[in-house]
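Page 47, continued from p. 46.
Same chain as before, 363 aa.
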Amino acid sequence: MLALHLSMIEVRLRAAVPNLVNDANSLSLAKMIAEGLKDFSPSASEKIRYSTHELWNKAYQLERLIALIQPQEALFTELARRTRQAIDEGLPSASKLKESFDRGKAELLEKENGDGGNVGVTFKLKSDSGSVQRARMLLLDALEELHWASQRKFSARPLQIGAIRLATMFVFGSAFLFVAPYLALYIFSLFGKPFDPRAWEWLPLFTALSAGLFGAFFSRLSALQSNANTLSLDALAEAKRPLYMLFRGIVGMSGALFVFFFLQSGLIQGNLFPKFKELGFSVVEWPSEVQPSPGNKNGAQLSSTTPTASVTGLPWRIVLPSESLALLIVWSFLAGFSERLVPNILSSTDKTLTDATQRGLSK
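Result:
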């Protein structure tokens, strides 16, 4: 891509030079651009060691210098093309560039009738030096925004990849921490170890905290994947730090802890909120009753000669979190995932309590 970009600059330079015969300043700039292109030759690259970032910086500098010697006839056409490019690439500054272009189009262009007006009305850039200079500055503004966006994308990409990789590791770690007690329960059940409720009294609180931690890390991963283009380079660099991710997880756990006690307080009730007296596990069996056919006492396997009319289904038994425990998990995950959930709960509760207090005092 860099070689293609340099070849385009060289072609534009050669196209502009014939129009610079009587302009000493422009000829000096053209010579400077030609000398700059030599730095990219294989022989020069052996003497000068540039990083890829520095090479692109230098190439963009040469492209901006081309704008200073752009022929007057093609200046506004190039400005229109660059403005459309900024809009197509979705640059944050695209609207401002479009506004500047429209204003420049109204102020810097003049009508030019071709063939006595029979062909139609065309427009050209005003020939005075002020209009030409202003058009060049508009073109430079567009190029600077495009180059900044390209360089930012180039610089942000490795930061984004590193931050996403770190966030993914934290997501998997917190997910394993969340499901670990349930895996242990299933393993104990598989090996026939009796369930002791007193040994698992900590499970609801642990579930809430680990679900909040999982939600916080999952939120960061989603934000890095979807909003990386809007984050600053400093924010992306900060997101690569494990300590930053750990602090974000602590905030999510704190939110889940608050939601845990808030739901337990009974200030809000309904089908969407867990009932703490019903936290536990449910045993689901399907079918509830199996009627095995003769010769198939367990109902687990059927032979090709066994009549199937008397069999209602194969036995299936699973252990699932109760409805209230599942609701607690969902609320805890949301408390860690959403940075606005806890503040919104506090704001709503404060308003409700204030209104109730005022009504009580007015009686």
